[in-house]
Design goal:
single chain
């Protein structure tokens, strides 16, 4: 490196948080999802890459799992006894 280039400061290592919270996702009804799929089909009908995707039809064929209400608002302690885990 040329001597006129300033050396960057060494980056500090951040420690993982033990708990994070977030606002719950707003409720989405089946009708909301059907409307969104219809809008996607309408908006993409003239695009040659996506005109035959049929999002409305795909949505009808999907099966969704229910939400575990005890796990909705937090992600807790991903640390292993010997140190942080990669998630």
């Amino acid at each position: 490196m040329p001597d006129w280039v300033a050396v960057a400061a060494k980056a500090s290592l951040l420690q993982p948080k033990e708990q994070r919270t977030r606002a719950p996702f707003p409720p989405v009804t089946d009708d909301d999802m059907k409307q969104a799929a219809k809008e996607m089909d309408r908006l993409l009908q003239d695009d040659p890459r996506y005109c035959s995707e049929n999002f409305s039809g795909r949505l009808e064929n999907m099966v969704f799992a229910s939400v575990d209400s005890s796990a909705v608002n937090s992600v807790t302690d991903f640390r292993a006894p010997e140190g942080p885990l990669s998630v």
